[in-house]
Each structure stands twice: as structure tokens, then as C-alpha cells.
Write a structure and sequence with these properties.
Number of domains: 2
CATH topology of the largest domain: Rossmann fold
Strand content: 15-25%
Structural class: alpha/beta
Largest sheet: 6 strands, mixed
Order of helices and strands: EEEHEEEHEHHHHHEHEHEEH
CATH superfamily of the largest domain: P-loop containing nucleotide triphosphate hydrolases
Shape: globular
CATH architecture of the largest domain: 3-Layer(aba) Sandwich
Distance between the termini: 31 Å
Helix content: 25-40%
């Protein structure tokens, strides 16, 4: 059974020179699995994820033939209904914690705000849950981090705080936009293990946006490859390294290889018909 169904999603921004389509006719379904979305910067990956939460604001607009989450029509539900879904049932880990965390609030206040306002928990219980979430993402001194301001944290620490914040309400769907890009390899593996456990044990659905094709091939179940706002290829993650579409092959050929020949990395050949589809 599909947790999320998207049909013919379009995201358009009105500009002085005319409308620009950032997402063009994207369709996919998601069960309680790990779905990877890969592609170059500007290919529409993040816009697709933000559209599910209806976070595209004017001059942008979202259109879709169908966008349904667990039986609820996301295109028709009022904004008050979306606020009830965001965080509690659908959460998103943004790419850069510097622009996602409130710079004038301590980390602890931001972690417990939702628990106290939305879930009506007392302060002591909210703090306990926040500390447990920080420990789950391998933050060694959670009490100190709770008292810190975002600018006092490293990029990797801020990323882990963002992941902890989104995992506290145990959502049914998590959209993770480059969630491990600022983490070292050891912590990256630990965070991926946490996400994998949530998918397997709680039946959570995961949309994993990343530039790291090798990571997606190893971690996800299925992969969507996006180019210029469209999905050009969909395949099982285990088959990603053997993909046949010329754009996907071009991305794979650009990856550096240990022990490979020294010299400039190859660039994408955009002369094929697929570039104008």
C-alpha cells in the first residue's frame, strides 16, 4: 500500500521574463521504504520534497493531478490541516542547518518547542525526549548542546540537531534533503542506521535526497534520477551503478575513483536527445 502518491507534479515560478518550471510532470509513489532522489543541483530534487509539505510560497505555485498522503489529498487540505501534518506525520530535514535553526533561540528551546506546544508535554518530559534524540544522533554532550546557540555548533553538529528535531515526533514520512552531507563517515553511518531502523521497525517512509550516488545505491531501496525538473530514470537502488540512461551514466562517470587515472574528471555530454526531453 502506498503511503504517498504523486502524479504529474509541477512547480512553477513566475518571473519578470515569464514562468519558469522547476519541476515538470513528476510522478512517483512511496511505500514504507527508502526512496532515493539523485541529480545535479537545480534538477528539482529539493523542490519536489518541499512540494509534498506545500512549502513553496509565491511567486512559486504547486500543481498536481494528484498528491495524496495516507488517504489525504494534500492539494485540497486547508493550511491548518497541513500544519497538523507537518512535523507530526511528515517531517523534512533541510539541507543547511545555518538557515533552518533560529539563530536567537537556544537549541534546547527549539527542540522542545514542538513537544510543548503541539503535544502539550510538560517541560521536564519535553527536555527528556530532546536529550534522548540528541543522544540517538551520537551527540556526546547533549546537555551542553541544549544550552548552546546554533552559531556555537559546527556544521556537522548543527546537521545532527536538525535530524534529531525531525525524528522526535516519530513521523510516518521523513523527507531528508542531504541529511549526511556535513557529517564525517563514521557519524554518517550511525545516522543512516537510525533512519534505517525507523523504516524497518516503525514502517516509516523515507525520501532521501542526495548527490552521493554510491551512498544512495547502498542505502536506498529505489532511486529516481532527476534532470531539469523531470524524472529520467527509475530503478532499484542495487542496479544504480549499472544504469543505462545516458544522463545517469554521465553522473556515474563523473565520480572520482580511488586508484583511477589522474587528470580532470569527465563532464556530462549534454548533446543527446534526452537533454531536450
Amino acid at each position: 500500500m502506498s503511503l504517498l502518491t504523486v502524479e504529474n507534479l509541477r512547480v512553477t515560478f513566475d518571473t519578470e521574463t515569464g514562468p519558469v518550471q522547476a519541476v515538470r510532470g513528476v510522478s512517483f509513489s512511496l511505500g514504507r521504504e527508502r526512496l532515493g532522489i539523485v541529480g545535479e543541483s537545480g534538477s528539482g530534487k529539493t523542490m519536489t520534497g518541499r512540494s509534498v509539505l506545500r512549502l513553496i510560497r509565491p511567486p512559486g505555485r504547486i500543481e498536481a493531478d494528484r498528491m495524496e498522503f495516507d488517504g489525504q489529498d494534500l492539494m485540497r487540505i486547508p493550511e491548518t490541516g497541513m500544519r497538523a501534518l507537518r512535523g507530526r506525520r511528515i517531517a523534512m530535514v533541510m539541507q543547511d542547518p545555518k538557515f533552518s535553526l533560529n539563530p536567537v533561540m537556544r537549541v534546547g528551546e527549539q527542540l522542545t518547542e514542538g513537544l510543548r506546544r503541539r503535544d502539550r508535554l510538560g517541560r521536564a518530559e519535553a527536555v527528556r525526549k530532546a536529550l534522548a534524540a540528541l543522544e540517538a544522533v551520537q551527540i556526546r554532550d547533549p546537555e551542553r548542546v541544549m544550552q548552546a546557540y546554533p552559531h556555537e555548533l559546527s556544521g556537522g553538529m548543527g546537521q545532527r540537531v536538525m535530524i534529531a528535531m525531525m525524528l522526535i515526533p516519530e513521523p510516518d514520512l521523513l523527507i531528508a534533503d542531504e541529511p549526511t552531507s556535513a557529517l564525517d563517515v563514521t557519524v554518517q553511518a550511525e545516522v543512516l542506521q537510525i533512519l534505517d531502523t525507523l523504516v524497518r521497525d516503525r514502517g516509516m517512509g523515507l525520501i532521501f535526497v542526495s548527490h552521493d550516488l554510491r551512498l544512495v545505491a547502498r542505502f536506498c531501496d529505489r532511486v529516481l534520477v532527476m534532470y531539469r525538473g523531470r524524472i529520467v530514470e527509475e530503478l532499484p537502488a542495487r542496479e544504480l551503478m549499472a544504469a543505462r540512461h545516458p544522463y545517469t551514466r554521465g553522473l556515474l562517470n563523473c565520480l572520482p575513483r580511488i586508484g583511477g587515472a589522474r587528470g580532470p574528471l569527465p563532464v556530462l555530454d549534454r548533446s543527446g536527445d534526452w537533454a531536450d526531453d
